[in-house]
């Protein structure tokens, strides 16, 4: 059996959809399972023993119809028995429809019966200890697995050599191995997913006061100016705990470095999902417009916690649409009461340590 899983979009989405591959390989150990994604997400899939081949679909191919149709027929020649399209946009509709697969699986939309023969309505509001992003992906396994699925956590696989390189990197920056090392996700993947920088600095100050930890920031070179802004907002005492120039420019070294941290604190997004896949504890701050029911993953575990405006002021979501809240993100970020956030963070430190 040959199976293709398609998940374009961001790293968090790509990583979450690996649970499909993990469970298919358990059910069909002899199957060849391929994974199609954007090139910038490939690194979170490397070394996963449940994925046989990674197929990048670049913007250059997507934005040229001749290139896209050439790509589609290359996929058809692979003779997949099943295509599971988690993304379900025009280019992946076409890839699936022309694949020749017996099983063409995706989510239900008004037009999807044209392209797929197995479609499922996404869960919108059910009780879930895992989060709807997980539950909705498990739906797409229904044509293949009838029994209850218990392997629901995405995983990142690192080589020993990558971990050793991360340890050497820490040593080269004279990181005190006796102190906790905490990574801060100071910047979101987009402006509207970034908690105000001055407020983030106050959270870092509080963390240092409560933990005496060494702090490193998650940022890339073109974000250095914003990272420096956060650093400058921090107190002079906190600055002594921050190793500002310790960061990674590539994803695999970043993952290895993250694996050596005590925890990750910061904006909800790809880094939080990667930390969870590495079994690193997380405390995340949600942007007001992201649905918490979908992405508050594995918060049944004490080591994962988050804060969302909907938890603090649910009446706002009765008065405004998600689109309105997104368009006025920074107005609504101002509604987050910092004292309550710090109180919840302190509780998290205590519960996690216990």
UniProtKB/TrEMBL annotation:
Keyword Phosphoprotein in annotation: no
Entry-linked Gene3D superfamilies: Glycogen Phosphorylase B
Keyword Transferase: yes
Biological source species: Flavobacterium azizsancarii
Superkingdom per UniProt: Bacteria
CDD domains in UniProt: GT9_LPS_heptosyltransferase
Assigned keywords, A-Z: Glycosyltransferase, Transferase
SUPFAM superfamilies according to UniProt: UDP-Glycosyltransferase/glycogen phosphorylase (SSF53756)
Pfam families: Glyco_transf_9
PANTHER family xref list: ADP-HEPTOSE--LPS HEPTOSYLTRANSFERASE 2, TETRAACYLDISACCHARIDE 4'-KINASE-RELATED
Name of the protein described by the UniProt record: Glycosyltransferase family 9 protein
């Amino acid at each position: 059996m040959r199976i293709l899983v398609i998940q374009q979009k961001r790293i968090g989405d790509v990583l979450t959809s690996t649970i499909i591959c993990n469970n298919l390989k358990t059910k069909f150990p002899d199957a060849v399972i391929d994974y199609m994604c954007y090139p910038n997400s490939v690194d979170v899939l490397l070394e996963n023993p449940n994925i046989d081949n990674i197929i990048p679909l670049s913007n250059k191919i997507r934005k040229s119809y001749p290139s896209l149709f050439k790509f589609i027929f290359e996929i058809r020649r692979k003779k997949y028995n099943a295509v599971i399209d988690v993304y379900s946009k025009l280019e992946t509709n076409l890839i699936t429809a022309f694949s020749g697969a017996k099983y063409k699986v995706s989510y239900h939309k008004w037009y999807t019966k044209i392209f797929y023969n197995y479609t499922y309505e996404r869960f919108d509001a059910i009780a879930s200890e895992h989060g709807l992003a997980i539950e909705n992906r498990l739906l797409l396994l229904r044509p293949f697995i009838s029994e209850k699925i218990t392997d629901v956590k995405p995983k990142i696989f690192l080589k020993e050599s990558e971990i050793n390189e991360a340890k050497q990197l820490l040593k080269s920056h004279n990181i005190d191995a006796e102190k906790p090392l905490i990574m801060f996700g100071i910047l979101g993947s987009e402006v509207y997913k970034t908690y105000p920088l001055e407020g983030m600095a106050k959270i870092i100050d509080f963390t240092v006061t409560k933990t005496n930890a060494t702090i490193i920031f998650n940022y890339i070179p073109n974000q250095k100016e914003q990272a420096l802004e956060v650093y400058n907002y921090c107190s002079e005492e906190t600055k002594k705990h921050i190793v500002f120039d310790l960061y990674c420019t590539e994803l695999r070294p970043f993952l290895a470095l993250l694996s050596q941290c005590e925890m990750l604190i910061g904006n909800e997004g790809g880094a939080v999902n990667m930390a969870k896949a590495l079994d690193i504890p997380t405390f995340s701050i949600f942007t007001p417009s992201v649905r918490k029911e979908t992405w508050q993953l594995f918060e049944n575990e004490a080591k994962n916690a988050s804060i969302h405006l909907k938890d603090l002021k649910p009446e706002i979501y009765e008065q405004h649409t998600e689109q309105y809240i997104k368009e006025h993100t920074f107005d609504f970020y101002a509604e987050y009461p910092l004292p309550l956030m710090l109180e919840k963070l302190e509780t998290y430190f205590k519960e996690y340590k216990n």
